[in-house]
Amino acid sequence: MRRGELYRVSNARAGDPRRNRIFLVVARRDLLESRYPAVACIPAYPAPARVATEVPLGEHEGLKHPSWLRCDDVTGVSRSKLTGYVGSLSGEKMKDVNRALAVALDIGGARLDRL
Predict the structure, then answer these.
(1) What CATH number belongs to 5-107?
(2) Which pTM does this prediction carry?
(3) C-alpha–C-alpha distance, residues 89 and 78, integer Å
(4) Could you tell me which of 47, 29, 26, 39 has the C-alpha nearest to residue 100?
(5) Burial state string for 82-110 with b = 16 or more CB within 10 A and e = fewer than 16
(6) What is the pLDDT of residues 50-102, one digit of tens each?
(7) What is the dihedral sign for C-alpha 54, 93, 42, 56?
(8) Would you give the DSSP letter of residue 80?
(9) What does the alpha-carbon distance between residue 76 and residue 32 come to, in Å, rounded to a whole number?
(10) What contacts 26, CB < 8 A, 6 or more positions away?
């Protein structure tokens, strides 16, 4: 399992109306190499919410239909559920995800130096 990989997950979160949802792994490498039972992921949705923190996905990433990662919705997913490998994001697409995460978490160069 690596940062930037997409997985189809069944029943990942309680209350999710979809049986299956695509998740992007965004956890850092040392966490992925540890025995920690859950990893940070971003869910993909079939329709855009039209917010600045969305990243579009499609056939280039291994999906059959257009989807949108909502980077405001970072969540922990159990490793045991991340078994349905779909594909991985290109370096350019991961840069888009990183930018969207920075916006979602309100962090940037100047903010990192402030408490």
Answers:
(1) 2.30.30.110
(2) 0.87
(3) 21
(4) 26
(5) beeebebbeeebbebbeebbbebeeeeee
(6) 999 999 999 889 898 999 999 999 999 999 999 899 999 999 999 999 999 99
(7) positive
(8) G
(9) 12
(10) 3, 4, 40, 41, 42, 74, 97, 101
